[in-house]
Amino acid sequence: MHIFGKILGTFFGFLFGGPFGALFGLFIGHQFDKARRLRQAGFTGSFGGGPSQAERQEEFFKAAFAVMGHVAKAKGQVTREEIQLASTMMDRMNLHGDLRRSAQDAFREGKESDFPLETVLERVRISSGGRFDLMQFFLELQISAAFADGDIHPSERNVLHKVAKGLGFSSEQLEQRLRMQEAAFRFQQGGFGGHAGGGQSHHSGGSWQQASTADQLSDAYKLLGIDSNADAKSVKRAYRKLMNEHHPDKLMAKGLPPEMLNVAKEKAQEIQNAYDVIKRAKGF
After folding, report:
1. Is residue 247 within 8 Å of 260, Cβ to Cβ?
2. Using alpha carbons only, how large is the chain's radius of gyration in Å?
3. Whether the predicted pLDDT of 190 surpasses 50
C-alpha cells in the first residue's frame, strides 16, 4: 500500500498550516501516491507530448485486465474460478508469451486494495480519445468477463457501476448492457437458458424445440436491446446501430488494441446471429 505521500503531505501541511493545512497536505499526498501507484502498474504515458497509437493501445490493454482483476476482487478473495475466467479471456485473445504475462501482471495489479480505479478509468478515457465506441467496448469487456460464469454478484455489479460512471456511462446505460449481456450469455448456450435441468425431461422433442426456439428469439431481441414487439424497421435500426458501434475494423481504426480484435469479431458475430434469428422468425 502506498502511503508515503499521504504521511509526508499531512506532516508538512500541519507544520505550515495547522489542521487545515494537514487536510490539504493529505489530499496532495494522496494524489502523489496514486500517480506513483500508476507508474508502478505500468500505466504511464506522456499525454502532454502526445502518446503514439501503440502507447495508447498498450495502456488500454493493460487497463482492461487491471480493471478485470479489480472487478473479480469485488466478491472478496479472488477464487480459482475467477483466475480461470481471466485465463479464458486471454485465450479468446490468443495471448501468449510476453503479452500474456503483461495481462496477468495487470490483472494482479487490479486486485490490490489500493488500486486507483478512478484514475485508471480517467486515463482510459484519455487514451481512447473520448471515443464512445472504444469506451463502450471497454465496459462491455468488463461485463463479459464478470458474466462468464453466468451470474453477476451484487458486489461485482456495484464495481461495474463505478466503472461505467468513470467512463461516462449512466447507471441506466449500464443496466441495459447488463441485460443485453445476460441475454447474450443464454443466446450463446443455444437459447436453452434455464431449461438445462431435469425438470424439463418429460417434454416431447417438438415441444422442447418450440420452447427453446421461443427462448432464443426472446434473448435475440434483448441482445439487440429492443422490445419483442418491435417492427421490422426498429429491428433493422437497432441492428445497424450495434453493428456500426461494434464493427471490428472501425474499432481497430479508432485505436482498439490488435490483441482484442478476436473479441470484437465475436461480438459482431453475436449481433449478426441474433438479427438472423429475428429475421427468420419474423420473415423479413
Report:
1. no
2. 22
3. yes
What is the CA 120 to chain-centroid distance, rounded?
13
3-state DSSP percent of the chain in helix, strand and coil, to 5: 75, 0, 25
Band the pLDDT of 11: cuts 50, 70, 90. low
Q: Are the CB atoms for 85 and 149 separated by under 8 Å?
A: yes
Separation of alpha carbons 76 and 155, rounded Å: 9
Distance CA 268, CA 243 (A): 6
Residues 221-242: pLDDT tens digits?
999 999 999 999 999 999 999 9
Q: What is the pLDDT of residues 86-119, one digit of tens each?
A: 888 999 999 999 999 999 999 999 999 899 999 9
- Indicate the length of the chain as a whole number: 284
Distances (CA, A) of 146 to 67, 97, 195, 198: 11, 24, 22, 27
Chain-centroid distance of CA 14 in Å reads 41
Cβ contact 178:144 at 8 Å: no
3-class secondary-structure state, position 74: coil
